[in-house]
Amino acid sequence: QVQLVESGGGLVQPGGSLRLSCAASGRIRSINAMGWYRQAPGKQRDLVAAIASGGNPNYADSVKGRFTISRDNTKNTVYLQMNSLKPEDTAVYYCNAGVTSSFGNRDIYWGQGTQVTVSS
């Protein structure tokens, strides 16, 4: 009923930039918080950044000052601008969203993930 589709991952050199996008679609009444998580091989999935419906962002300490999360509520889309990328940022990045469906059900939805690789 609700799908999250990510785009924008890829291979980038250290110090480079990438912009991830995640669009939600389906039977959506409203979206609360939206966020980005990442999971490196052999590690747990960790929060990178999140943003409330009113626009208040918060970030993991490891990305503060380098990453910026934003959202366009008219498009049900969340973005992650990643600058000054480091090899340790290499991971699969997942978006998620707290969605109230048109039926009134509240649930957390996840995207399929997009690979970000930072390497020279």
Distance between termini? 40 Å
Low-confidence stretches: none
Shape descriptor: elongated
Number of helices: 0
Q: Report the count of strand segments.
A: 11
Helix content: under 10%
Structural class: mainly beta
Biggest pleated-sheet summary:
7 strands, mixed
Mean pLDDT: 96
Radius of gyration, CA atoms, in whole angstroms: 14 Å
Q: Give the percentage of residues in beta strands.
A: over 45%
| SSE arrangement, N to C | EEEEEEEEEEE
Task: Record keyword descriptors for this entry.
single chain; about 120 residues; mainly beta; elongated
Describe the structure.
It is a single chain. This protein has 120 residues and is an all-beta fold. The strands form 2 sheets. Strands 2, 4, 5, 6, 9, 10 and 11 form a 7-stranded mixed beta sheet that branches. The N and C termini lie far apart (40 Å). The model has no long low-confidence stretch (mean pLDDT 96).
